[in-house]
Amino acid sequence: MPAVARHLMILGRVQGVFYRNWTVETARSLGLTGWVRNRMDGSVEALVQGEADMVDHFVTLAQHGPPSAKVARIDATDVPAEALNGFEKKPTA
Question: Does 20 participate in catalysis according to the annotation?
Fold first, then answer.
């Protein structure tokens, strides 16, 4: 099955609640590749790619995130898949 990729903008109370660490752990456990980073506006941005059903499952889980997070919404956009290895945390942008 070909890889799909989604660019996510996660809004709400998602910084200072271990959301990025949760994202890395969850994405890796689902066999996904990509990255996650905080944004200066208080949101979290991620690129998640892999099998379509696993990407969809990740987006569903991300609606809740870690226990202290309060996700208001996720804006998801399909993007071309990239050649990535693993899932990493990037510096704030």
Answer: yes
